[in-house]
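Hey, quick one: can you model this chain's 3D structure?
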Amino acid sequence: MSAVETVWNGRRVCYTPLASRVLVVAIEGGGGYWAAYVDAVNGENHELEWENVARHGTKLSREIAEIMFPEFAREFIWRP
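Sure thing. Here's the predicted structure for all 80 residues.
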């Protein structure tokens, strides 16, 4: 299982499974900000399930998000 990058509504997104039924998603926000979210999924099709995590997942702490997505931490400002 590896990270997948895509673009969603003009924003850079990266998602990766922690397990077959748990996804973490980093999403670029406006103004150079970013945040990351985690949630459970059915595990049937991550290509379709990550959007729900981006919309409704639990926001990760900055510390955990930076470990999961170091490239976002280098390129964007954390959204508190």
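One thing worth noting: The longest strand covers residues 11-19.
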